[in-house]
C-alpha cells in the first residue's frame, strides 16, 4: 500500500468523496424518500444505487493505494554521475524497446517506464499522473482507474435519471411554494449539474484510456509520437493485459487479478542490475 503526499491530489480526493456522498444523500433523502415512499421500486433503487457507490469507492481506493508499477530501487547505490552529461536520450528513455537509465532515480528502468516528478519514482508503462486518484496511472493500477471511471459514469447517469424522474413524478405535497419543496428542487438541480459535469469529464478520460489500451500507446508515448508497441495483437488480449485473464464478466470487479502472461510480471521477476560503487 502506498499514499502520495501531494497537496493537490489530497484536495482532489476530498472533493471526490464529498461529491459522491452528496449525490448519495440527495438520492436517498430527497428523491427516494420523498417521491418513492409507497413505491415498490424504492428498495431496489436503494440497493442498486448504493451498490454502485460501493464499487466506485472500492475501485477508487484500489487506484489510490495500489502500487502503479514503481521501478524498485537497487539495494546498492549506483554511480551514474557521468550519465548527467550524456545526451537527453539516455536519461529520458527515448528508446522504447531497451532498458534505460533514470538520472533522477539513479537506477535502471525497463522499456516504457517513465519518471513521475510528483511521485518521484519511475513508473512502468506510465500513462499519466492523475490528481483525482492522487497517484500515477501505470500498469498495475490502470484496471482500477478504468473501473473508477466506469462507476462514476454509471452513477452520474443513474443520479440524473432519478433526478429527472422526480421532476416528472413529484411527491404529493411537495411544491415550490413550501420550504421542503424548494429544498428538494434545489438539491435535484445541483445533482443534475454535478452529474452532467462529472459524466462528461469521465467520458472524455475513458475514451482516452480505451484508446491508449486498444492501440497500446500511453499518453506519454502519444505525446512523444513513439507509436504503438504491439500493433498485431488482438484487441481482446490488449484488454486482458490490463483487466486480467479471468472471465470478461469479472473485469469490472475491483479485485486483484493474476495475469501470468503480462509483460508486467516479467519485469517484476527481472532483478535490477546491482553494481557496487
From TrEMBL:
Pfam families in the record: DHHC
Report domain Palmitoyltransferase DHHC positions.
Answer: 97-225
Report the subcellular localization. Membrane
Please provide the record's keywords in A-Z order: Acyltransferase, Membrane, Transferase, Transmembrane, Transmembrane helix
Superkingdom to which the source organism belongs:
Eukaryota
The record ties this protein, via InterPro entries, to:
Palmitoyltrfase_DHHC, PFA4/ZDH16/20/ERF2-like
Transmembrane ranges, per UniProt, are 7-28, 148-169, 189-207
Q: Name one GO molecular function term.
A: protein-cysteine S-palmitoyltransferase activity
**Its catalytic activity?**
L-cysteinyl-[protein] + hexadecanoyl-CoA = S-hexadecanoyl-L-cysteinyl-[protein] + CoA
According to its record, how does it sit in the membrane? Multi-pass membrane protein
The Enzyme Commission number assigned here is 2.3.1.225
**Chief subcellular site?**
membrane
The UniProt entry's GO CC annotations, sorted and at most eight, read: membrane
User: Would I find Transferase among this entry's keywords?
Assistant: yes
Q: What is known of its domains?
A: The DHHC domain is required for palmitoyltransferase activity.
Q: Which family does it belong to?
A: Belongs to the DHHC palmitoyltransferase family.
Q: What is this protein called?
A: Palmitoyltransferase
State the organism of origin. Answer: Glossina austeni (Savannah tsetse fly)
Amino acid at each position: 500500500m502506498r499514499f502520495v503526499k501531494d497537496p493537490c491530489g489530497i484536495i482532489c480526493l476530498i472533493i471526490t468523496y464529498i461529491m459522491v456522498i452528496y449525490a448519495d444523500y440527495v438520492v436517498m433523502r430527497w428523491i427516494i424518500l420523498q417521491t418513492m415512499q409507497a413505491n415498490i421500486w424504492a428498495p431496489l433503487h436503494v440497493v442498486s444505487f448504493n451498490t454502485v457507490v460501493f464499487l466506485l469507492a472500492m475501485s477508487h481506493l484500489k487506484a489510490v493505494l495500489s502500487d502503479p508499477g514503481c521501478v524498485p530501487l537497487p539495494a546498492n547505490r549506483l554511480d551514474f554521475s557521468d550519465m548527467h552529461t550524456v545526451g537527453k536520450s539516455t536519461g529520458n528513455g527515448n528508446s522504447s524497446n531497451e532498458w534505460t537509465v533514470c538520472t533522477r532515480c539513479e537506477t535502471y528502468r525497463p522499456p516504457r517506464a517513465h519518471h513521475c516528478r510528483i511521485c518521484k519514482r519511475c513508473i512502468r508503462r506510465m500513462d499519466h499522473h492523475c490528481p483525482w486518484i492522487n497517484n500515477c496511472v501505470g500498469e498495475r493500477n490502470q484496471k482500477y482507474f478504468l473501473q473508477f471511471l466506469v462507476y462514476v459514469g454509471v452513477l452520474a447517469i443513474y443520479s440524473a435519471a432519478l433526478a429527472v424522474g422526480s421532476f416528472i413524478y413529484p411527491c404529493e405535497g411537495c411544491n415550490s411554494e413550501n420550504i421542503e419543496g424548494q429544498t428538494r428542487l434545489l438539491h435535484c438541480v445541483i445533482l443534475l449539474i454535478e452529474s452532467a459535469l462529472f459524466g462528461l469529464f469521465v467520458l472524455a478520460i475513458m475514451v482516452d484510456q480505451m484508446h491508449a489500451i486498444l492501440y497500446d500507446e500511453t499518453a506519454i508515448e502519444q505525446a512523444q509520437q513513439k507509436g504503438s508497441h504491439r500493433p498485431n495483437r488482438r484487441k481482446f488480449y490488449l484488454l486482458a493485459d490490463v483487466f486480467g485473464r479471468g472471465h470478461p464478466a469479472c473485469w469490472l470487479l475491483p479485485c486483484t487479478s493474476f495475469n501470468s502472461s503480462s509483460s508486467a510480471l516479467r519485469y517484476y521477476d527481472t532483478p535490477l542490475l546491482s553494481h557496487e560503487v
